[in-house]
């Protein structure tokens, strides 16, 4: 049975490595809700990994606390604690002398599961991450590609069904295409499992794609902004965040919404074999100049304009122009925009399962939708900011400011979400 997420609270979490004058992580305060994916993103060396490893106590905090479902974990036995927290890292961290199955089975075995239950779980986990158990179970890690190793790493992290999953650049070591697939897999898994995930990356696009919320971290893990990807793109809190988010924020935003989220607009359709006068009448009665001809299985095959129908004499299957590219209802707005921009007449048919007609999008309509979306994001982000400002603590007296500035900002941002 799936153990779904647990809330995580970091309170004034600080790490000063021995011999360092400055802490590497300075007073991080934030809350990750149960079942949420929060991504820590920030420049190299800002303390993302250190913050993450303090959650499962691979690194002991110098001060501050971590609470999981309200319980302070700094008092727990670290080994016991780590059994309840999945952990996936960039190099996959697989033991080279153990097979795939043995690697995945490690934590369930330590937790005392029966051999039968462990074997069933290994099979289930391999299927979950898209690897054929028969083919991969008995392989050693050296006989896997980088992407396959990372999948096994994720399977191992999930094997004991922990409510919390920590992921430290888990897809950092693979090519961009495989990385995209692994990200899609994680999104799919997360829709099913609803774990609480803290994910570290320095790739802002990855953060935008995967995070329910993103914590943009600056030096010493100071929280520069903690908000939804939409709000961060629409309204970066300061120059550091906008510099980090980079150019093209509006285009990045288009990746966050899929056509199906918006409801795909329809367009008039005709079926092969329908009488021509009936088809002409339908197009005349519609507000548009063009319709889609569907084949016997309901798949769009040709675009028909009024003039095509006026001159049509033979079967409709030879009238008009063939449907070139189509997009599915799962396409992101960016993919849909790309498709209409490359179509010579600025429209594209949308399909559902089995290529069946689901609607059509046009350049003008899509641009209007995108403008509306960006304006709504800006409105919401401004609203968030006003809320944050109204809950910000009273200004610190000048003499104490230097000592607590980082902490106070972390508190204000952390409580905002
Ligand atoms: N074991 C350690 N001993 C001393 N200093 C350390 C140790 N681990 C990390 N640091 C220092 O702490 C700071 C933060 O490191 P950390 O690995 O947490 O950053 P990061 O944001 O995850 O970086 P990256 O994106 O490059 O992995 C760095 O200045 C690093 O040199």
UniProtKB/TrEMBL annotation:
Keywords: ATP-binding, Nucleotide-binding, Transport. Residues 8-245 form the ABC transporter domain. It comes from Streptomyces heilongjiangensis. SUPFAM superfamilies: CBS-domain pair, P-loop containing nucleoside triphosphate hydrolases. PROSITE patterns: ABC_TRANSPORTER_1, ABC_TRANSPORTER_2. GO terms for molecular function: ATP binding. This is ABC transporter ATP-binding protein. Residues 377-417 are annotated as: Disordered. Pfam families: ABC_tran (PF00005). InterPro entries: AAA+_ATPase (IPR003593), ABC_transporter-like_ATP-bd (IPR003439), ABC_transporter-like_CS (IPR017871), CBS_dom_sf (IPR046342), P-loop_NTPase (IPR027417). Belongs to the ABC transporter superfamily. Residues 377-392 have a biased composition (Basic and acidic residues). The keyword Cytoplasm does not apply.
